[in-house]
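Researcher: Let's do a round of design. I'm pasting the structure tokens now; please hold your answer until I've finished.
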């Protein structure tokens, strides 16, 4: 049985890679080598530097989000080390492998229970999802007349995310009573034994066991950091487009930026969302009269910049292992 799961997982990963390559080819088909080279040559050094600073800031902020929930167990420098590892594996390999790296490092290096690290990951994602939902509600309302056929899917998406957020708050407020009621409803619907549903219920049960006041106070701070993280992310999207002299409407950038964050949650991405990110961006920006001929070479350039910037935080890893980690051990 484990062998079958490994084979199925390997096939699934290969299919995701094939999809990514196919989508990259599609994006390349929207431009040509001459346009791409010209786009790179005319890139703005000023906005390139600003983009690099914001990318570095995003790494620090993501570590801060986790640190809010780990501060009684790990130092900020330890959390930053784990997050950089997680991001590196997610950006250059598989998103799922990045999550496994985070859980494994928290367990092996810092003796954190797996259930605890998973709960911290889920709480962080709920904070991010809430901030994205709020941004999408506001921005979609402001660009509603421009998004045409996207209107119905956006309403469905907002409703679905709203249900997830409600599940979280109902679990915090009503605790095991709500989880028990939900379990009975899922059993009645005969979906309680579906693996994904089981995992959701188990996560909600773990959440229900945490002290209510502690969750609410911590989540308030986490939501603040998630909102700041999203604002910086939108700023990073703006600077990336500005590198290639694409000055687009800020409301459209907020809307598309929020949608792209949702796309990053899809379990299809490999190599940091290669292909899926670019194809989605081409589609979403088409609603704002941005031609594929202008956008495609810029998106390819942004992908190159993304991988370049993703390498820079890796400098921290040997520094932490050689100097900071021994000092923390000595301090203990």
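Researcher: That's everything. Go ahead.
Model: Designed sequence:
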């Amino acid at each position: 049985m484990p062998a079958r799961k490994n084979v199925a997982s390997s096939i699934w990963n290969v299919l995701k890679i094939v999809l990514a390559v196919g989508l990259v080819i599609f994006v390349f088909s929207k431009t040509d080598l001459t346009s791409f080279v010209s786009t790179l040559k005319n890139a703005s050094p000023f906005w390139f530097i600003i983009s690099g600073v914001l990318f570095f800031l995003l790494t620090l902020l993501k570590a801060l989000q986790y640190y809010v929930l780990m501060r009684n167990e790990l130092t900020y420098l330890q959390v930053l080390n784990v997050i950089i590892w997680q991001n590196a594996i997610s950006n250059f390999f598989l998103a799922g492998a990045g999550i496994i790296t985070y859980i494994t490092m928290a367990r092996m290096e810092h003796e954190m229970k797996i259930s605890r690290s998973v709960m911290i990951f889920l709480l962080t994602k709920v904070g991010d999802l809430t901030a994205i939902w709020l941004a999408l509600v506001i921005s979609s309302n402001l660009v509603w007349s421009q998004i045409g056929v996207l209107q119905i899917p956006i309403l469905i998406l907002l409703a679905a995310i709203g249900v997830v957020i409600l599940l979280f708050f109902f679990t915090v407020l009503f605790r095991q009573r709500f989880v028990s009621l939900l379990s009975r409803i899922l059993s009645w619907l005969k979906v309680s034994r579906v693996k994904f549903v089981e995992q959701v219920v188990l996560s909600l049960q773990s959440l229900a066991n945490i002290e209510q006041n502690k969750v609410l106070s911590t989540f308030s701070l986490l939501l603040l950091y998630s909102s700041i993280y999203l604002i910086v992310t939108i700023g990073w999207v703006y600077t990336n487009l500005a590198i290639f002299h694409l000055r687009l409407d800020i409301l459209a950038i907020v809307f598309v930026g929020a949608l792209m964050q949702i796309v990053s949650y899809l379990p299809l991405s490999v190599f940091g969302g290669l292909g899926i990110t670019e194809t989605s961006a081409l589609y979403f920006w088409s609603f704002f009269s941005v031609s594929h001929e202008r956008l495609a070479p810029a998106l390819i350039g942004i992908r190159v910049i993304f991988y370049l910037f993703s390498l820079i935080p890796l400098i921290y890893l040997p520094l932490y292992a050689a100097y900071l980690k021994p000092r923390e051990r000595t301090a203990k």
